Fold each of these.
Amino acid sequence: MTTKILALTDALGNLVRFRLMPGQRFDSVEVPSLIDGLEFDAFIADKAFDSNAIIAELNERGATVVISQHPRRSKPLLLDREIYKWRHLIENFFCKLKEFKRIAMRTDKIDASFSAMTYLAAAIIHSQ
C-alpha cells in the first residue's frame, strides 16, 4: 500500500495542515476535514479537487475558488489564471518535503511516526 499526503499551505507555501491518506483514495475526500475551522480568502488547487461539493462549500464560505477545471465539466467555471500561477508554491513545498529520505521512501511504517517526521521536515523547511 502507498500513502498520500494531502497538504494545505498558506500564501507563502508554508505548511498549515496535512492529512495522511491511503494511496488509492481520492484527494477530494479529505478536503472538508482539512479546511475545517480555517478562514481563508481563496482556495487554489488542481483538477483533482474539482468537485461540486468542494466548490459549494467554498462558495458558502465566501472564498474565491481557483481550481483548474476537469475537462468533462459541463459548465466550466471561470479560472483566474494569474492567481492560479501561485499554485506552484504547494508543488515547491512537496519538492522540498521529498528531499527528506524518510518521507520520500516512506520508511516510517506507523502513521504517527510518519506524521511526526512530516511535521519535523515542515519545520525545517519553514526555518530556512
Amino acid sequence: MEVNMLAVFLAALSAFILGGAWYSQALFGKIWQQETGVNIDNIKPLQVFGGAFILAFVSAFVFAMFLGPDPGLGLGVGAGVAAGAGWVATSYGINYLFAQRSLKLFFIDAGYHTLQFTLYGLILAVL
C-alpha cells in the first residue's frame, strides 16, 4: 500500500501541536490537571513528548493506510470525525465509566481525539 510519509509526518505533527494548545493553561490544561490529579511540572518531557509524537505518528500512519492513497476531502474529514468521535472517544468513554472518571475529563479527552483524527483526515486528503 502506498502511504504519503510527508502527510503522515505532518498529521502527527498536527496532533502534537493541537495537544499543546488543547492541554495548555489557556484552554483545558488546568481542568485536565484537576480531573486527572496529574501535575505537569512532574512529567519527564523527553519521555512524554517523545512518546506522544511516536504514538501520534503510528496512529496517523495506520489512519493513512485505512483511508487509502487518495481519499478525497470529504472522505478524509468525514472518516476523521467518525474515527475520533465514533471509535476513539467511545472507547475512552467505556474506560472512563469503569474508572469512574468525570464527564468533564471525558469531554476534554474525547474532544481532543475527535479533532486529532479530523486533522489527520484533512491533512491526508489534501496532501
